[in-house]
């Protein structure tokens, strides 16, 4: 294990990311071009059509070049396991960023149709480049928008075939303050099937306390939740939580 994982705060790209958080919340990008550079790096170094190698190349870029806001390899393994348990026909991700999470879902469920919602069009372009290089563009779709925009993005997803009882997996990894409201908007549409799995990243850091409290309140009623103790992406110093919740209704 290298020093960059043991001492992440000594990395300039980590410091730059922390300083850029106010702008990131508005634009979806750190502001130093690392997102576009990720796609450039993948196209230059990853084997075309090899999903495993594309994911490993993104991890390499995040560890060795510039820190990324991906779910990462450690927590990604938890996501992979949840995807396999859900065995989704249709999966939805909230928060595309560079396309890493959707790519992990597509790999773990090779027969699934994956949709990802991203508010920053520039990130959507980066993700599509990476998905094309990995060879999954035929079954991974990015919808630019936000769930909390008054229904426009939900309507766009409905136009892609989202319907009551038709969603098997939901991965939430975007604006932490929107975790609960966006989940509730999806529940209001009735899209989750009984037994569907909802995975939420970064529940401890940066933190989604309202979402966590809701899942605790609904334990054994609407959801059955397991809290996975893990670490913030690409380092071993800061603890994090990934919540995996099975939907009991529908």
From TrEMBL:
The keyword Signal applies. InterPro entries: SAM-dependent_MTases_sf, SAM_O-MeTrfase. Keywords: Methyltransferase, S-adenosyl-L-methionine, Signal, Transferase. SUPFAM superfamilies: S-adenosyl-L-methionine-dependent methyltransferases (SSF53335). Residues 1-20 form the signal peptide. This is O-methyltransferase. It comes from Mycolicibacterium arenosum.
């Amino acid at each position: 294990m290298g020093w960059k994982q043991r001492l992440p705060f000594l990395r300039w790209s980590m410091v730059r990311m922390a300083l850029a958080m106010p702008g990131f919340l508005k634009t979806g990008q750190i502001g130093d071009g690392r997102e576009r550079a990720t796609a450039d790096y993948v196209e230059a170094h990853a084997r075309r059509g090899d999903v495993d190698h594309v994911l490993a190349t993104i991890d390499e870029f995040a560890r060795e070049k510039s820190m990324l806001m991906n779910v990462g390899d450690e927590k990604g393994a938890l996501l992979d396991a949840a995807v396999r348990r859900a065995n989704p026909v249709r999966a939805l991700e909230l928060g595309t960023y560079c396309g890493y999470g959707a790519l992990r879902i597509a790999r773990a469920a090779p027969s699934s149709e994956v949709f990802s919602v991203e508010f920053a069009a520039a990130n959507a372009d980066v993700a599509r480049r990476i998905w094309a290089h990995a060879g999954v563009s035929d079954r991974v779709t990015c919808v630019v928008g936000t769930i909390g925009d008054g229904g426009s993005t939900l309507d766009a997803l409905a136009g892609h075939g989202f319907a009551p009882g038709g969603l098997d997996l939901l991965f939430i990894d975007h604006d932490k303050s929107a975790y609960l409201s966006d989940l509730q908007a999806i529940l209001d549409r009735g899209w989750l099937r009984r037994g569907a799995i909802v995975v939420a990243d970064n529940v401890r850091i940066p933190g989604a306390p309202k979402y966590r409290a809701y899942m605790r309140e609904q334990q054994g009623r609407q959801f059955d939740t397991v809290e996975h103790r893990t670490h913030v992406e690409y380092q071993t110093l800061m603890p994090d939580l990934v919540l995996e919740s099975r939907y009991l209704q529908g």
